[in-house]
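Retro notes, item 3 of 5
We never archived the inputs for the guanosine-5'-triphosphate complex last cycle. Fixing that now. Sequence and ligand:
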Amino acid sequence: MNDKENIIRRAEATIAAVATPAGTGGIAVVRVSGADALDVVARCWRGLPPASMTSHTAHLGEVVDGDGNAVDQVVLTVFRAPRSYTGEDTVELSCHGSPWVQRRVLEVLTAAGARQATRGEFTRRAFLTGRMDLSQAEAVADLTAAESAAAARVALNQLRGAFAGRLRDLHDRLVHFVALLELELDFSEEDVTFADRDRLLQLADEMDGEIAALAATFADGNAIRRGVPLAIAGATNAGKSTLLNALTGDDRAIVSDVHGTTRDTIEETLTVGGTLLRLTDTAGLRDTADAVEALGIERSLRAVDRARVVLWVIDATAPATVADLATVLLPRCAGKTLLVIINKTDLAAADAVRERLATLALPEGTVVVEMSARREADVERLRREVERVAVPRVALDADTVVVTNARHHEALTRALEALRRGRKALRDGVSAEFVAQDLREVMAHIGSITGTITTDAVLHDIFDNFCIGK
Ligand SMILES: Nc1nc2c(ncn2[C@@H]2O[C@H](COP(=O)(O)OP(=O)(O)OP(=O)(O)O)[C@@H](O)[C@H]2O)c(=O)[nH]1
Ligand SMILES: [Mg+2]
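Structure as it came back at the time:
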């Protein structure tokens, strides 16, 4: 018995779990799924016999314990296989939301023959019964965890199968491609090259373009899913913490005119344009003999390294800091978006700082904002500027495919490597046999995303990140 059969065999047990969050609520939903779900529920149910219920109907009744004592009055909804989330017979009991009632209902179900579900087991079954592919199952976890409109949108598109559809299409074309190559192999004795190699090269180029384009969406996709990391960096006393507070509208960070007020990194989130931004305020950068401050500065630099967008705050009254800070910050900003903020223009003109900035090689597309954190209108202008540079410009309509998952990105990258090896072999006139081998590898990587090819370890990693009851 291999792993997959083993999983399917185990999957035959009927499982139960509370699907709503722990604690008291108006209602709590207990899910039961498995071939015996209706029988299990029937053993602790007073009302219309579940076996006689039509799929997708709801019924009022009572959950009763082994002695026939009522535990709760509930609404039972039945979903018959295969038209259920898991693809198996499923019953959902909407109970009263007391933690005690939830626990008792679960105990009674367990006594009636159900087993407590493990993390993500309902969704795992949906995958194993073919209700969804692996990329869709992962989208379920993402949608459950979505923290912004944009994150929810990309997860929903993935759940609906937009990504899966593109992968299926790629897979079909790979199959066709390999078939053409095999045709050539079959007739190789007769010394004919069938598949026109130019045509094959063209096909390979098309697929290359598509896989590369998909892989390239990961930078935005990842930022949308996890939130865009921004670091507020600069010299001490420039007004970084003041800006964090102003942007988030919260008094989160301590502000003072003492240089080196912020010792540690401070993280806050902000939603703009439907996208979650993760702002990190950092300890001001300066030479210091203080060991603790030096540790804080190390953290500042790490926050800059992790950021996608760096807000370099410069005090307009301290233009002398520009050169030193440029040496520290600019090399770290390669490939990132840099937003330079000349702050405190209520105290001094921005000219001196601007002149110094003009002598630097700032990354392309660097935006410079002159402002005073003391003026509400300036803060508003900064917020708009942050939105403009930080929010990924992805049109989030119904069929937009954005790769949001590192596992998928990795698989696409490997698929692309194998495809490029195959293309090179094709161009070099290498025997079709070897080209086909590379192409099969491309298929395997694509298949690992949708789960046509997968291992128990991969499945475990994925579903272990789910909550119980999902
Ligand atoms: N006049 C004026 N003062 C400002 C402005 N922005 C910040 N300040 C003041 O500048 C001082 C330093 O501000 P902070 O926000 O603590 O500066 P910081 O960059 O976080 O400093 P460190 O944490 O020490 O690195 C405080 O007294 C602020 O009130 C501004 O635009 N105009
Ligand atoms: Mg500070």
